[in-house]
Structures are given as C-alpha cells and as structure tokens.
Amino acid sequence: MHPAYSVILFTTASGAGYGLLALLCLVGISHGEASSLVFGLTSMVIALGLITIGLLSSTFHLGHPERAWRALSQWRSSWLSREGVLAVVTYVPALLFGVVWSGLYPAPDLIKPLAVVTGVLALLTVMSTGKIYATLKTIRAWHNPWTIWVYLTFALATGATILAAVTSVFGNFPAFLVWFSSAWLLVALIVKLGYWRSIDAAPRDLTMGDATGLGRLGQVGQWELPHSAPNYVQKEMGYAVARKHAAKLRRLVIAALVLAILLMLAALAVPHAALLSMALALFASVVQRWLFFAEAQHVVTLFYGAKAA
Amino acid sequence: MTSLPPPSAKKLGLVIDLDTCVGCQACATSCKEWNTQGYSAPLTDFNAYGSDPSGVWLNRVHGYEVKEQGQEQSRIVHFPRSCLHCEEPACVTVCPTGASYKRAEDGIVLVNPETCIGCKLCSWACPYGAREYDQSHGVMKKCTLCVDRIYNDNLEEEDRLPACVKACPTSARHFGDLGDPDSKVSQLVAERGGYDLLPEMGYKPVNKYLPPRARRDATTSRAEALPKPDGSAFDRLFQWADKVLSPKKAVARANEIDHSGRLEG
Predict the structure, then answer these.
(1) What is the pTM of this model?
(2) In chain B, which residues have their Cβ closer than 8 Å to the Cβ of A80?
(3) For the segment B19-31, what is each residue's pLDDT rounded down to a tens digit?
C-alpha cells in the first residue's frame, strides 16, 4: 500500500496527542485536583495541538478537503466516519477538562467525571483509527487482531514519553513517570513484535489463479498488462518499494524503541534524557507506521502479476 | 447512505465470456468514450500521447497465460476487469460520506461525484481494483453499468445497453438481471458454469465470468473429423478433373513462395 505522508503524520501525531490526553485524564483522576496552571495548560495545548495538527493533515490527502465535514455522516457503517465523529466529539469534554484541570476555572468536583469521559473518548478515537485498517479484508497484514493494539499502544507509549518529557522540563519529575513511560514503550515494542510475527506467519494462500478463477484450468501467469504505464490501482495498492528494506527498517524500529527505553531510564539520573527518549519514540512510531503501509500487500496485486497474496 | 439497502430482487450486472473474449479492447475504449462525456464526466487522462500515459479507465482488459496439465502449449485468456456490482460491497459501507451507494432498485453501485471527498478508502476496500481515483477532479470513479444508457429513453431501445456490451464484437459481454433465474444471463451462467471472482472475500459479486471451454487439441479437433478422400471412383474422378482443369503455370506459381510481402492484385 502506498504510504501517504499525510496519513502517517496524522495517525502518529494525533495518536500521540490522544495518548497524552488519555494519560493527562489519568493524572486528573488519580490526583483529583487541579494541576499547576502552567503545566496544565502546556500539556493540554500540546495534546490538543498534536490532535489538531493530525486531523488537519488527514484532510490534506483528500481530493476535496472542503467537503471533509460530510465524513461525519455515515457513522452507522463506516469506521472512518466513526473516527471523525469521535474525534470531533472528544474536543468538547477535552476542552472542559483542560479548563478545570489546569485551574483556569475552579470546579474540582468536575475534574474526575470530565477526565473519565475525555479519556474514554480519546482511546475510542484511536481504536476506531485502528478499526479503519483492521476491517479491510483486502489487506491481509491489516485485517489482523493485532492492528488495533498496535495503534493503541503506540498512542499511549508516545503519549507517555511526551508527558515525561514535558514534566522533566517543569522540574518536578517523579521517578514513577520514568517507570510508567518505560513500561508503555516496552508494551508497544512487544505488541509490534507480536504483530510482525503474526503477519509473517499468516499464510499467503491466494494466488493469481484464485483471483482470476482461471486456476481451475491450470497454472496461471501474467501474459499482458491492460495498460502500458502504471495506473492508479498499481500506484496506490501495488506499492512495493519498502518491502525489500522491511527487515532493516524493522530493526531500526526495535533499536529506536530499546534506546528510547534506556534513555527514559537514564532520566532517573538526568531528567532531560526524557526529551531524547520522546524524540526516539516518535521517530520509531513514524517508521513503524510507514512500514505498516509499505509492507501491506493488497489482494488486487494478484491481477497485476503478484504470485500470492 | 452507505449502509446497504435490503437485497434487491433485481440485480443488474454483466456476464463475461472468457471463452470468446479476444482481448480487442473495444469494451474498454467504448467505455472510456461513453463515460468521459456522461455521468461524472470526464475521465481524465494525463500525458495521453506521451511515453508515460495515465488516466482513469473503468474497464481494464488483462491477458493471462494458462498452462493446462498435459498440454504442451499454454493458452491465452483475455480477462476484462471492471466493477462487479457486489451484493455486499465493502467499498460502499466504508465510505464516510455516503457518496458511495448501492441502488435499492437494481443493485448498481455508484459514486456521487458531488459529495465524494476523495479519501480513497473505497478503493482500498475493493479486492477487484474496480475503482480508480481521478486526480484532477479529486473524486473516485467507477463503472456505472452505464446507468445513463440502460434507462435512457432518448436512446433507441437496442442501444439501452452498457457501452462495453454494445461494442463487443464477439458477444463476449452480456447484460441483464442476474436476480431473475429465468433471465438470459442467469441461464447462460447456469449452462456454462459461470463463477464469482474471489468468492472467499464474501462480497458476493453480481457479475459472473464464464470459464473458457475445454480446448480442442489434435485428437479432438473437428478438422480431424472431416471426411477424408476414401479412394472411391467419385474421388478419383474429381482428383483427375482438378488436375486437368488447373493451368500448369498457375499450379507452378501457387507452389512458389512469394517473399515480396505484397498481396496479389
């Protein structure tokens, strides 16, 4: 599948934003009182900023960005529409939570209920992003039970490192946060390894003979393409540039995540190491998301010469 | 609405005969010609006369080579590929805007070019590569089953067929109601063992493909079955007459191999 940069930026940026938002809600629930004004506002602006940048960038790959509002209408059948609706709805409690949790408006009783609603909606939004891909039967590497968990754990892991990094800048840096972020990075790594293991083990049991139905006659091979230059279907669904580099890029993701964990642990001694850890975690998130697209093979490639899918 | 309508009794679609298709591309070009000026027009081309042409086509004709067991020579099968107007099309249900829809009355799957946002998700959901994105208009394009021909009162009745069906010189394309078991197309499917593409995907395509017939080889070809001269008196009489009546020069000329490449004139 062609990796559209706007979609990769959208899913990683908004994922990190929703992860951070959900964790800020967790902070709100566990503390039950307003944070310091500057910390509360800074972290909320970063979370909502990442979400907003992501959502805006997701409209860049549309043919008609001005019609994007129409995507909110088909939530009955479409996960993309559900994601849009959840994303928009989440803003309402998130902004209210930001206002009371940062202490802009004193209403301590509202912190916990708003945090619960916001946190649940944020996680549901990330899950629905994963669902968009996981429900496509045409792409074996996406139609996989691990897909949603990859989206969710990377959102929380990158969100946690941002939270740790922001906290380290503000001084008061609890050791708990180091263990918490490291744990999420580890979980994301384990889930991603599980995902790769699963897609590598899945049999590619459809052939050109199955796709064309000509397998009933004998062995099928491609004789002539319908067109002399690549068409949309080949460019969008037949993207194969990264596949040959997949093993290297996977090692890069693993190395970046391991290094991010080590740097996060180093933040116990030098708090600012959390900033580097965050940068590496975000880098790993982008590379693995790019691979998620580039490694995925679409079943339509069978009509265009792929031996199996 | 991208939720699917209840299954319609009428299921309009195509039956494509892979035995008689000769891969002439007439269906693809007539499709392009009709649809570039009709509904959701035009079908854009880029660099159409250059070395790297690209553009939107709603019908693509592949060529496959099939090696049958026990056959020395493989056979070529021409394979037109377009929207199959599935009974349960995922391309419709994934659409976030409602631009993609399945018509309740006849099952035709269409895209409304006025509301499509060009997110391309429908093309990802289709296993058949039936949808092509129009870069210049920012919307998705697909086969309409020539909805603007088949119900068009301004056309003569005999022309109320999809352009591809109308154009096919070998009658390899058939159009009709596959929901009606008594229709010509349904009977053709039953008779020839018409099949679905990728039934395991579960989208229940309406269009059907008729498999190539068993091929005739040296042992089964009808030419072999033609009567041979049996050496009877009649046969010998005709052979003698043939020899006497053929001018000697003409016989000699016919036996020479002409390398000029020109037709005799």
Answers:
(1) 0.89
(2) 94, 96, 119, 121
(3) 999 999 999 999 9
